[in-house]
TrEMBL record:
Main location: other
Name used for this protein in its record: ABC-type oligopeptide transport system substrate-binding subunit
Organism name: Sedimentibacter acidaminivorans
CDD domains: PBP2_OppA
Stored InterPro entries: SBP_5, SBP_5_dom
PANTHER family per record: PERIPLASMIC BINDING COMPONENT OF ABC TRANSPORTER, PERIPLASMIC OLIGOPEPTIDE-BINDING PROTEIN-RELATED
Amino acid sequence: MCIFKKGFNILILIGIFMSILAVGCQDKSMLKGVMDTPNSDNTLVWNLSSGNINTWDPHFNTYSVSGDIINQLFEGLTVLGENGYELGVAESFEVTSNDEGAENTVYTFKLRKDAKWSDGKNVTAEDFEYSFKRACDPTIGGTSADLFNTYIKGADKYNNGTGSKDDMKVKAIDKYTLKIELNNRTPYFMEILARQQFIPMRKDIVEKIGIGWEKNPETCISNGPFKLISYNPSSDLLLSKNNYYYDSENVRIPYIKCLINTNNDNINLMYDKNEIHVTQIFANGDLKSEDILKTNYIGSTYIVFNNHSNIFSDVNVRKAFSYSIDRKYICEQVYYGALPATNLVPSDIKLSSGENIEVKRKSDVNLYKVQSENSRKLLKLAGYDNNFPEVRLVTQNEYLGNSIKSMIESNLDVKVNLIIVSYEELKEKQLKGDFDMIIESWVADYNDLMTFLDNFKSNSSLNFSRWSSMDYDSAIENSMKSQGLNRDNYLINAESILMDDMVVAPLYFYNKYYRVKTNLVENIKSNVMGKLIIKHAKLNLKDISSLNTDNKTDGLINKGAYGFDDRNRIEEIDKNGYFNDSANNRFDKYLVSNHFEIYYSSSNENNKIYASNAIEVLEEDYDRILEFLSVEEKNMPIIKISMYDEYEPLRQCLIKEKFFDGDTMERLQGMAVYSNAIYYTYKYKGSSVDTPTTLKHEFTHNVTMALAQDNYHPDWLLEGVAMYLAQEKDKSEPYYEELLKNGIPQMYTLKKNNKDKYIYGYSMVEYIIEEYGREKLVELLMEYGDIQKVLNISEDEFRDCWIKFLEQKSK
């Protein structure tokens, strides 16, 4: 008995495509020269980001998602394809020695003469020279200078003020010839050139407009397959095909609408209704569907400790905190499909031999499983004995942050102040060092250890840890002068120095998954670093009217994964004699009461009686459950109930709609979906179930979601409340001693998918009501289980009090 997702008010979302024309900052003259104006037949809708995007100027952007925009608008000397780098604006190149005889350090590129800007002007070598030197200009305060300093000779002198821009060895030899000299031989330099920081820019535009040039369609002159048509801050960007792009005849998508700052609650429903065609997803139980695209993403998520903080200046403290984290739990319950990380660099980064780094390095064995006792000893070694100060953990991700907070408080007995911030606030706190711990992620720009290790050099502007090591810097510097096995060894040693000092607490490595409407969009692929390749995709949106005609509402497809099938079922039965669910199970009868509609099949002559009994049970307890949870009747929708007379049809329907696998649903008897739907069976594999309890349990979920619809409730609270209200006549059940005997789990393990969340949750809810009162339980539901905020104690303190409650009850 469970719900699938956090509360979700399912209203038919309209206006996605209507809004394409009603966009801000739009130059309508820019629509001329394309075949059509943007509409639902010619526009790919890409859900790009749940966060906001404030810049896609490559020399100021540090956000991976903004890089997706840059990849559509611009093209560098090289681009990344499915199998590695490919030539972009560069038509050919040669690599030679420099004047001192250092081999393979001078690159000379010949540019395509048909490469043009979106206003029709030629892309020249001068555009690249200007852009590269702008990145290192010390007066603009950009974020990409470190990259150029690392690789291009003289860039560091220009950037640090000891030289001029002429010292930077990037030179336009003529209009279509560009020469670049490197500090050291760099085998992966052609991949480096595909990074967003190395795109060309138009000096006449950028110098005239200054900061913000890229946000205005009139001044965002680009040279890639698409151009900017409009930008609606906090809403969307609209791109159109760039007819001046040298390969424009193979760009088949007229428009791309990139949604930003989207509400995660709405994404899956919008996808089901074909209002979104491409969206990133977190890995879930079914990654075999035809619409799942797994990319070659190399990413790492970790906690950065602020070494300038008095708290984390001691390596023993950093290790204590790192050892207290349950990485296995995070990867199995928080981010399914991720891999527990015991190092900074993801395990599939390649060495010079082609082998993965994992085969050559060692990991700290203490990171493989929680080391609670060892962690507490390390704190004592650092001079702390039950007097450790509260620490500030900063993150964008509230779900992951809460899990980490629970683990540290449970396993280390240290209070954590969780600070949830926007992306912009996160960046500001990084730069200012305004944190004790901060959760960060880094995605590889090229398949080499340096893409991760370069960030922790002492002089790196991305070294937010404020940590420095002469040995580390020396290992990085020596790697730049080496090649092959020697280079590998220097870099492996550098990572070892970083991890021995526990500068970061690695959490997990991950892949990136997308859902792509493959019946509407063809040929979307990903490059070697997991970024989507859109320019050769093709739309079939005009065929939308022929799809799934049995399941349409107002022309919008309304069934499928993550979305409750919210058709007017009574109308369908009255008109057609039946309706079919997602697994083609047929319902041809219904009953209606004041608050419920129940649908069933006439194939079993007893089903009408069962349906009538079900409605009677729910109506009898309707007022009691609403009153207990402080929900007014006017705030409750009509509950639509699908009654199955066998277990397997229910299971198949919910697998089809929810992407749940068979194991997850092995004991399923009922499911509440959002605040207005219940699916249940009165038989479980041939045996009768306790139907009244099942129905009241699931209806309690409906009411809970009507109470607080905006976020995720921890499972122990959600299921505990449902258990408590469904079994109100059996609260004297003597199970306390059994719970104590089996052992009381840590709080964070009961937050998701723990098989014991029901019985433990029941007792926790009982404790809250007896100790704090019903009102506090309701407040806790409205605050999504934030114990510290509502009850003014830590989760660890709550657990201790709950255990005492169980001990008292068991006497």
